[in-house]
Structures are given as C-alpha cells and as structure tokens.
Design a protein that fits this description.
The chain is mainly alpha-helical. It has helices at 2-17, 20-27, 31-37, 41-68, 74-87, 89-102, 105-129, 140-157, 164-181, and strands at 130-132, 182-184. 25% of the residues are buried.
C-alpha cells in the first residue's frame, strides 16, 4: 500500500510536493507503520521505485515473450511498448524521481543500482527476443535500447503535445528502422 501511495503521489503532485504524511494518509496506514519500514521519504521513494521497476521489467519481459510466441508481430510489439510507456504509471513517476536524483547525490546513488538492474533485465529480454541482421553494424541490444530511448523522449514530449497522428508517424518510422536491423526470433532472419 505504501509503495502504491508513493507512486500515486509522485504522479499527482510531483517529487518536491510528495511528503510522507501525505503518503501515509493516502495509504491508510499510521505514521508509525511507515517509519518502522521506511524511516524517511528517501527510503520510501527508493523502495517504491524498486517495486515499480520490478513491475515494469516484468511487463517488458511478458511483451517480449508474446512476440517470441507469435502472439503479435514486431510492429504490434512496438505499439504495445509505446502504449506501456505512454499510459503506464511507471514512466511518469520515474521521470519525477530521475529529475529529483539529478540534484540529490544521495538519492542518485541509491537509485543507480535499481536502474542498472532494470536495464539489465531489458537487455536480457532483447537478447532472448531479437537477432541482429548485421551484428557487426548494430547489435539487437543497441537497436532496442535506442528504441526505448526514443519512446521515452516521445513520452516526455507527450506531456505537452497530445497530437496522436504526430506520434503515429514516428512509430511507423521506428518500426521501419527496426525492421531493417533486427528480426524477432519467431521470424527467419533475412
């Protein structure tokens, strides 16, 4: 409950305005219960971030498994990644945390292992799901990390620019570029 209330608070009022009193009230627990498990705001933020990243990694792994199992094609996989990025709570909550960590060395040091673990899980999924068409030019891991970074940038832009056709056009370009560099393991290479 505390983790969910923390993420909800980050989404609603941002990192700077997220306080432990507001979180415990939202979670319906006592301040004593919160301090017993998480002595301070940063402890709670880090724990909630770990839970959030775990859930996101699980979602990405499920999407990758669906692609490998032939439930959808590469284009549909990208559409699902984008939907996860734009509609899931993890991205916008993590954006709040990342911006806060930029100016807070202690928070940054505590979050760095979590983000490295998240990216490691992504890369494991990419390695299990994609074959590079010309690995000497671009590995499947790098291709998919580029895609994730572009999708994150698009999601940031979508905060202020809500034009669906604009993003659809970019998604089509991403799919075309990706098709020229990787093949899902369910398809025959080349």
């Amino acid at each position: 409950m505390l983790h969910e209330a923390t993420i909800d608070s980050l989404l609603e009022v941002g990192y700077a305005n997220t306080g432990t009193q507001h979180i415990v009230k939202r979670a319906g627990v006592s301040r004593g219960a919160q301090t017993h498990h998480y002595p301070g705001k940063q402890d709670l933020i880090v724990a909630a971030t770990e839970t959030m990243f775990e859930g996101f990694a699980n979602d990405i792994e499920k999407l990758a498994t669906g692609l490998r199992d032939g439930e959808y094609d590469l284009g549909q996989f990208i559409d699902r990644l984008w939907a996860e990025m734009i509609s899931g709570t993890w991205f916008y909550a993590s954006l709040e945390i990342i911006v806060a960590a930029r100016g807070d060395q202690g928070l940054r040091q505590r979050l760095a292992p979590l983000i490295l673990n998240l990216h490691s899980r992504f890369e494991t999924a990419w390695d299990a799901t994609f074959i590079a068409k010309e690995p000497e030019k671009l590995s499947s891991r790098v291709a998919m990390n580029l895609v994730m970074n572009v999708l994150r940038g698009m999601a940031v832009q979508a905060v202020l620019r809500r034009e669906t056709p604009y993003y659809e056009e970019m998604l089509q370009a991403i799919k075309a570029i990706l098709h020229s560099h990787v093949t899902p393991i369910t398809e025959s290479p080349g």
